[in-house]
Each structure stands twice: as C-alpha cells, then as structure tokens.
Design brief:
Oligomer: single chain
Distance between the termini: 25 Å
Radius of gyration: 19 Å
Number of helices: 8
Low-confidence stretches: none
Strand content: under 5%
Length: 236
C-alpha cells in the first residue's frame, strides 16, 4: 500500500522522480525483510512462552527482542544513510537520479527503526492471538500516508511543495502514529513488555533463541530481493 501510493503520486512529478523511487524499492524491502525475520522469531518464541504459562518470561523476551531490533536497525540505517550514493550507483542510478534518491532515502533511513519496531511489535500482538489490532494499525498508517502524500509532494493548501522528499516525510509521520498506537497496546494496555535490568547472559540467550527463527526467515525474503536488485542493476 505504501509503495503503490508513493509510486502513483511521485510518477506525476516526471520520469526522473519515478525512476528514483523505483531504485529505492529493493533497499527498503530489504529492511522490511529483516523486520519480517525478527517478527517471525518474536511471534514463534512469544507464542510458545505464553502458551506454556510463562507470561513473565514472555514479557522479558519481548523487551530483549525490541532492544535488539532497535540497535540492529539503527546501525543499518546509519550505515545506509552514509552509503546512499555508492549503493545506488551500484544499482545503476545515474547522476540525475542520485540527488532525488538521496532526498527520499536519507529521511526514510531516519524513520527505518520506527518501521521495524512497528512490524516486530505487531508480531508481538499477533502472538497473543490478536490479529485484528495490528491490521487496523497498519491500515491506519497506510491511510495517513495516502492523505499526506499529495499534500506534501505537491504543496497543496498551506503545505510546502517538497516533491519526492514529501513522500518520505509522509511515510515517516504515518509510522510515528502507528508505532505510538502499537506501543500503547503493547506496554500500557496489554502489559506485554517488562523493562528488565541489563543482564548480558540473559540477552545473549534470548537473542540466540530469536535468531534461530529470525535468520532463516529473513534470508528467505532477502533472496528474492537480492535477485530483483541484480535485475534492476542490469536493466538500469
């Protein structure tokens, strides 16, 4: 939904803008694949702990999983923001597309940890049997993006015309709203997260359990995306 909406409105800016946003999809989907992998690890382990009557351990596990998610995605986003030009040059972007890609991806990288925390947090909710709330949250985020995209891209009404940068801002704002709702459900309403003391042995144990499921799940998604990235580079 996010990709379709962004592509639709950005395409109206012209061919260069459409080409620029197209180059970003393999990279943004790689981040999403990492989130899918971590989310699979969270839902599997959390569901097992809750189902076996270890609710307290489940809360600590989710805390540790979210901490790893934040640290990992922040590191990836930082590296990604520093490597925008060489990475997209490798994918075949030309000099006219690179400034547009930078305008979009720099802001997108800033918000990437929010997206991954949102996706992983929603998997925590699903592990309790609540699939409806995460769906509603993501639908609301997509709707906010749909409303803000034309306002910020084209500068409608009192909003400034930000073009491709406006699409990134609209996306990040929608993630902020969605993550706020997800956090409210996880921490304040369902009490699914327990802020445990720092314990390296516990963290290593929980992260190892998480990685056992997360690594193959993320890799499965990444294989298709890496193939698509290579095809895009050849076509470019």
């Amino acid at each position: 939904g996010f990709g379709l909406v962004d592509t639709f409105f950005i395409s109206q800016l012209g061919t260069e803008s459409l080409a620029a946003i197209s180059f970003t999809f393999p990279v943004t989907l790689i981040i999403s694949s990492i989130a899918i992998g971590i989310g699979a690890g969270v839902s599997t382990n959390l569901g097992r702990l809750i189902g076996s009557g270890h609710a307290d351990k489940a809360k600590v596990f989710l805390h540790d999983a979210l901490l790893l998610t934040f640290l990992l995605t922040t590191l990836i986003a930082l590296l990604g923001s520093l490597c925008i030009e060489p990475l997209f040059s490798l994918l075949g972007a030309n000099q006219s597309s690179l400034p547009l890609i930078h305008d979009y991806m720099f802001l997108w990288y800033l918000g990437a940890p929010l997206l991954v925390l949102l996706m992983v947090g929603n998997q925590g909710l699903r592990a309790t049997g609540d699939t409806r709330s995460p769906a509603k949250i993501m639908m609301l985020a997509a709707l906010i993006n749909l409303i803000l995209d034309p306002l910020l891209i084209f500068g409608l009404g009192p909003f400034p015309r930000l073009e491709i940068q406006g699409a990134a801002i609209a996306t990040v704002i929608s993630w902020i709203v969605a993550l706020s709702l997800s956090t409210h459900l996880l921490i304040f309403k369902r009490h699914l997260v327990e802020f445990a003391e720092f314990n390296l042995a516990r963290l290593k144990c929980n992260w190892k359990q998480l990685a056992h499921i997360a690594q193959p799940a993320a890799l499965m998604n990444l294989l298709n995306l890496l193939t698509n990235a290579m095809i895009m580079a050849m076509l470019a």
